[in-house]
Amino acid sequence: MANFFTDNKDLQFHLRHPMMRKIVELKERGFAEKDLYDFAPQNFEDAMDSYRRVLDIAGEVCGEVIAPNAEGVDHEGPRVVGDRVEYASGTVRNLQAIVDAGLSGMTLPRKYDGLNFPLVCFVMANEMVARADAGFENIWGLQDCAETLNEFASEELKAKYLPWVSAGATCAMDLTEPDAGSDLGAVMLRATWDEGRQTWLLNGVKRFITNGDGDVSLVLARTEEGTTDARGLSMLVYDKRDGGVKVRRIENKLGIKGSPTCELVFTNAPAQLVGDRKMGLIKYVMSLMNAARLGIGAQSVGLCEAAYREALKYAHERAQFGKPIIRFAAVAEMLSNMKAKLQGARALLYETTRFVEIYKQYGHIARERALEADERQEMKFYNRLADGFTPLVKLFSSEYANQLAFDAIQIHGGSGFMKDYACERLYRDARIMNIYEGTSQLQVVAAINAVTKGTFLEQIRRYEEAQYSDAMQPVAAKMRELTAKFEEMNVRVETLEKECAGYKDFHARRLVETAGHIIITYLLARQAGESDEYVQSARVFCKLAEAKVAEAHTYVMQSPAEDVELFRSVQNEVL
Question: CATH topology for 448-568?
Fold first, then answer.
């Protein structure tokens, strides 16, 4: 039987990370619920055993149900029937299997019928689901919207919606509009208070909404009449059972075709306010988007895993000139690079998840009691890392998903261009990952502050001070060299930015990617000290990083301030 957890030693390695003890202690509040719920863990070992058992079940559902349905779902797709979404038949079976296995509400508190699992486990399940079918991950993974309700909604709203999500209700986040894509401050869907009905009424159009006909939707709407900026926006929760929303159409997409991307028309749709008015974009959507970007990181890594496995399998089976094509150096090198990028992206994903987890748990604890001084400091520390690493993991993992899907087809040759092989679907599915939830360009904008404020360099120094195995000493030495180049680039950019505004923006991606390459290499080198499984990938990724950083360093160090005109000339071009 196929099981996407037990067949993946890399996932099991990350589940054993030393920081899991701290994460479990925070999540379980010192195992305070062990006497309240029969299924609450008694101690750390008991908790870890529960995580493994549930992830094993998730792996089996992914391998035995979701993956076999993927091709059929891609072919059939969802449709609009009576202004509502009707899922593909395979998607219906997937959702039922998920509910039957009890895999909804993974991170939600037990008081709301959730499993109270750490974010690490949810991200792992997300990754496995994406490996099986990236389109279905968009439906199942959106249950993370419930975490925003858990974090910011009133007790009344949480009691109403969170048990429903734990029972299998699907979710959506209704943010973008025809004239408000990345610029969410331009959202104009109106929310007006109806005194008689004691509810908010939503009117307007939302577009490009993933799983737009979900049972529970978080809607960004303009509650403040006469405003046109972010300060007039609030977050509301909409219940599909209340009506008032029609699905105008489902977009005909290149990939992730099983996931309905909808255009929605709101007509006096009743909704309830989440948190405070005017904080919709400034506070709640930013939290929602950070969670979504972590979700896309997991989705991207899952697709990387699928692409690598398809390519490796084909390279072993396909014979040319009397031998399997994996025996050819050119193919073997491609596969080595694919594996290094896969394991590197995964290392960054779970490092980021751990940072986010600890920061978020302190946030929950702070609503229960006042934090101690050392806890406040630790929360700030991990908040800073989470803010820097989240766009970084979204950037690298989504770009690697595209690269690995591309390489998988290349290894398949002409066969990969045919729909007979899964890599064709993976290639189409991957293309959206460095676009939605913030394009790669926007991730650079979000991450550049972690460069200029020193967040990345400080963390690189912490990795630098760690102990590495003898086999990894050359890799660690090379990273120290690359870090010196990174510092040189920073100094030059900072200096020339004073002479020419826009110089930092021009080189932002080179700076962010340089930091990312160094960080990922260190993460793999650290893992190689614990398992020989990562030695080859650490060495391969070190070579890739060296080449990329050398290219970026040469460009930046030889780039005069006048280079800013290279993009300004395009900005000013009129066709």
Answer: Four Helix Bundle (Hemerythrin (Met), subunit A) (1.20.120)
**pLDDT tens for residues 95-143?**
999 999 999 999 999 999 999 999 999 999 999 999 999 999 999 999 9
HSE on the CB side for 211, CA within 13 Å?
23
CB 122 within 8 Å of CB 107: yes
CA atoms within 13 A on the CB side of 510: 24
Closest CA to 118 of 62, 39, 66, 50: 50
Per-residue pLDDT band at 5 (split at 50, 70, 90): very high
CATH topology of domain 1-169: Butyryl-Coa Dehydrogenase, subunit A; domain 1 (1.10.540)
Q: Which CATH architecture has domain 171-277?
A: Beta Barrel (2.40)
Domain boundaries, the chain: 1-169, 171-277, 279-438, 448-568
Q: Determine the CATH number of domain 279-438.
A: 1.20.140.10
Alpha-carbon distance of 95 to 135, in angstroms, equals: 13
The full 3-state SS of 447-461, as one line of letters, equals HHHHHHCCHHHHHHH
Interatomic CA distance for residues 140 and 106, integer angstroms = 11
Q: Pairing mode, if any, of strands 79-81 and 84-86? A: antiparallel
The pLDDT tens digits of the residues spanning 498-550 come to 999 999 999 999 999 999 999 999 999 999 999 999 999 999 999 999 999 99
Tokens 């109106």 sit on residue = 190
Question: What does the alpha-carbon distance between residue 570 and residue 523 come to, in Å, rounded to a whole number?
Answer: 38
